[in-house]
Design brief:
The chain is mainly alpha-helical. The protein is about 70% helix and about 5% strand. β1 and β2 form a beta hairpin. The protein is globular and about 60 Å long.
Length: about 170
């Protein structure tokens, strides 16, 4: 009995240490990452559950495709973090202290979180769960706000209006 408790205690200690270190390393990106992981899992399982309601067959090929999509989602977050690293390195090189960490990665993660919410809601709707109309609208609004605050190419989207960066 004591040996079992010791093993369980060590597993808990190890898990706690791992997540504490991961959270400290991720900083502001930790919460979006944890939410995205949870939603990835829920989306995968609701997609499996909704397949028969859509008239689709469950198959290992479709399951594999779903897992590949989830991996690609994480590659997008990693790419955002890489851009953040490049921005920080460049700013540091010229003597500028940036007031943020993981800004691009967080924006990517928030957009992907909204995407996962939409997918989960669609899966639940296909299963036959009655959904409040405002929920999908709210999630899409948050996703749109995230897009509007991000600079894309030569145009800056801010509060729904486009401005060329040369005009600023």
């Amino acid at each position: 009995m004591t040996v079992e408790r010791d093993i369980l205690t060590e597993l808990k200690l190890g898990a706690t240490a791992f997540f504490a270190a991961l959270t400290a390393w991720l900083g502001t990106l930790a919460i979006p990452v944890y939410i995205l992981v949870g939603l990835n899992i829920v989306d995968y399982w609701t997609g499996i559950a909704a397949a028969p309601y859509r008239g689709e067959k469950r198959s290992s090929a479709k399951g594999y495709h779903g897992i590949v999509k989830k991996i690609c989602i994480w590659v997008l977050v990693w790419m955002g973090a890489a851009v953040d690293g490049l921005l920080a390195y460049t700013a540091n090189t010229v003597g500028i202290a940036l007031p943020f960490h993981f800004l691009v990665a967080s924006a990517v993660a928030i957009w992907l979180i909204c995407n996962e919410f939409v997918s989960i809601l669609e899966n639940m709707g296909d299963i036959g769960v009655e959904l409040p109309d405002f929920l999908m609208t709210l999630v899409k609004w948050i996703q749109s706000c995230t897009e509007q605050k991000v600079t894309t190419g030569e145009k800056v989207l801010n509060n729904g209006t486009e401005t060329n960066t040369a005009d600023r």
